[in-house]
């Protein structure tokens, strides 16, 4: 058996242990899960393997709907993300859409430092757009603080983009309860922080964005 095959068998073995432990701890868990999916939350996060969505908020399978991509980007041309949002909002009736970035994000580092990484450069360009939008302020910060400052700015911009999607705008127009949030996760301490961008209607978006942006700037100016 090759090393690669052995490693994959380890994953399968781990899965069987997990399934057995889960069923033993909560008999009938999988049969109930098969019959329904009723999450209240859509998590739009980074694809980084150090940021496992369900585990961070201690939710079981079926309780959190998840979409992940490099640097937790929400853009209006990304039909993958928009399709996930549409299914979550229109079909599953999630009540909260949470855009979550994380400290020391590799995609944000690449965007900040103009690093070329390959095909992903075209995707990271969206984060570079955020950098350019806030470049004058970022330049006032010590270099060591710029990455995490841009991480937070990126969360705010992507959460605002989520608010402006047709999916969320249409839900608000028909009176459906959907609240968009912007959070950041600290790799160094395992804690999630609310960046205070919370919008429950179209009228909330701009005031919430301005308050959250002021909060980010105040926090990093200290």
From TrEMBL:
> How is its cofactor bound, per UniProt?
Binds 1 zinc ion per subunit.
Q: Give the binding site residues for Zn(2+).
A: 46, 48, 102, 105
Name the SMART domains for this protein: Pro_CA
Q: Which SUPFAM superfamilies match?
A: beta-carbonic anhydrase, cab (SSF53056)
Q: What class of enzyme is it?
A: lyase
Which reaction is the catalytic activity of this chain? hydrogencarbonate + H(+) = CO2 + H2O
According to the lineage, what is the superkingdom? Bacteria
- For this protein, the Enzyme Commission number is 4.2.1.1
Q: What does this protein do?
A: Reversible hydration of carbon dioxide.
NCBIfam families reported for this sequence? PRK10437.1 (NF007756)
Q: What is this protein called?
A: Carbonic anhydrase
